[in-house]
Design goal:
The protein is mainly alpha-helical. 63% of the residues lie in helices and 0% in strands.
């Protein structure tokens, strides 16, 4: 007689025949569980919406204030840039108007 581990039919039949009955469900278990979960239920569904709305308002206000401050900084820097540009143009045009025909302009040459 050889033992075949794949042939478990006798064991399966034994366990089906003598399986213990499940214990009876406790009375009121579902009601107690629902009573414990009731305080965890969300009370007001508007709260997350109002929180997101407030966050967006703060973010928009912060971005608007930051942009305004950046524009003020740009305007404060504008005279410096304008003075540099004005000086460059004056020097460049003076070199153009003071040169005689046939002379090379300063900073420009034909050899490349």
């Amino acid at each position: 007689m050889s033992f075949d581990p794949q042939d478990d039919s006798d064991l399966v039949n034994f366990l089906r025949r003598y399986a213990p009955a499940p214990p009876p469900a406790p009375l009121g278990q579902e009601a107690r569980l629902l009573a414990q979960l009731a305080p965890l239920a969300p009370q007001d569904r508007r709260l997350p919406f109002l929180g997101i709305l407030a966050l967006l308002a703060l973010l928009g206000g912060g971005l608007g204030l930051g942009q305004t401050q950046f524009q003020r900084w740009q305007l404060a820097q504008a005279p410096v840039v304008q003075e540099d540009l004005e000086g460059f143009l004056l020097a460049n045009w003076q070199a153009v108007t003071d040169s005689k025909p046939g002379e090379e302009w300063p900073g420009f040459s034909d050899d490349r």
